[in-house]
Amino acid sequence: MTSLALASLLLMGTGQKDQNPTFPINSERPNIAAETFTHKGDAVPVIEIAWHLKPIDPPRKSPKLFGVDKIPWEFPWLTSVYGETAPRMIAAQQVFGLRFSVYSQDNTTKARQVGQMLGCLWDDCLQRLHIDHSDIYNGKIIDVFLCWGGKAGGEQIFDSFGPDHTKVNTIYFYDLNSFTDPVECAREIAHEYGHAALNSIGGYKEPEFWANGYLGEKLFLRWFRDRLKAGTLASNDMMGADLLTLDRWVTKNVDPLVVAAATHQPTEAYLKDDTLAGMNKYIGLSLYADTILPDLMWARSTVLTGSTNAWDVPEAIAMAAEEPNEYDLTIPAYLANQPIFVPTGRGKIAGVKILKFAGKWVQIQGPAGKHHVVNRAS
Predict the structure, then answer these.
(1) What is the CA radius of gyration of the chain?
(2) Taking the mean position of all CA atoms in its chain, how far away is CA 47?
(3) What is the pLDDT of residues 226-242, one digit of tens each?
């Protein structure tokens, strides 16, 4: 996703309203400015950010109630984030769906910055993992609230709203004045989007009950770091975070968890730990699977897990790895020629030394790069 917009338009007219969740791109909408974004090298856009030029009336009220009086906060400004839901090679044939409604308490450009990063996160999940937002919550739309008050940080809540108690998936970012450090802003957004979009594994006593927020920040910031290196993403697609600082963050917070997961057999006892250390073991295992397996294989394992228990994850990863006739497993440079565990079971893996079998996981040693795995003759 490049930060270079294909179009920056003032859309005036009597066409479809912004609240409609699906529209052909560049359709006319009254009093709304819009900007479209494209992948580097592509001819058509994949994300559109559209913001109201006037306050919405009435203002949106938060589903969450605040203070001792339990009243909602009001948000009169709306920025909408649309994503390409029906890919077409010709821009005029594209169909975009509303995926985020970003509400703010004043006309701040941070709403567009937050929306832009969330749009990139949504697009990455869709393209890499084939994961879209759940239909259960307000037709796949996540409501995001940028708040001047509250304790600095973020919060994701599955809630209900309105007289019909519509189920909503909501994210709040508090004390917007503190939202200044680029990498910390990106981390906070990635964390809350992890809660909103990724599979839920939980039961932890610390630092949170659910692990998908901490998984999200580590998974997504590593993806973004890699895309910044490849030149397919720009710094201002992720709150202005620069490659050097982001690379240091990933090296410190992500790589050690991957190494630990790779070098430990993922037994039930290893993962049955409800402390911070136990959460990091699960997160490390998920990041490791994302490192060595094809994207859709790791995504498939999250479906096969079938519970919210971390100790069910190794079996699900192995089951996903057994499904295709063949695939490529990737050993990164920092795990080259180290004894590591991989979920290949009895599959034949080329170019490595087998050290031992441990159920459906196998300890191997081999050089960096892609290694072909054959489960069965096609």
Answers:
(1) 22
(2) 15
(3) 999 998 889 999 999 99
